[in-house]
Amino acid sequence: MKKEPMKKKIKISSANIKEIAQSLVCGVAVGVVYLSSTGSTVNTNGLVRGVSREAIQVYHLDPQGVFAVTTIPINKITALRVLNVTCDT
Fold it and tell me: Where are the transmembrane segments (predicted)?
């Protein structure tokens, strides 16, 4: 019987999200959970396209199936999940 590698779940605080996103900004696929302007929780998957001190930009498919860029304020993000890193050198 082949032993499966253990998947680690790492919990991070909102204070660390900016540093993690900046270190992986060159095409990191993420699951981002954030609070919208109306206060509802939104879960999105996509590629981080830019990071600033205040926000990250996520390139993703919108509900209509069209590619869109969403700017998410860092202080509204409640979770960030790194799925894959694809950096072209």
Answer: 20-37
CB-based contact 74:18 (threshold 8 Å): yes
Decide if 5 is inside a domain. no
Q: Look at residue 18 in the predicted model and tell me its pLDDT.
A: 59
Q: What is the pLDDT of residues 10-24, one digit of tens each?
A: 565 655 665 665 555
Residue 7 lies in a domain: no
Supply the pTM of this predicted model: 0.56
Q: Which domain holds residue 19?
A: 14-84
Coil/strand/helix, residue 54? coil
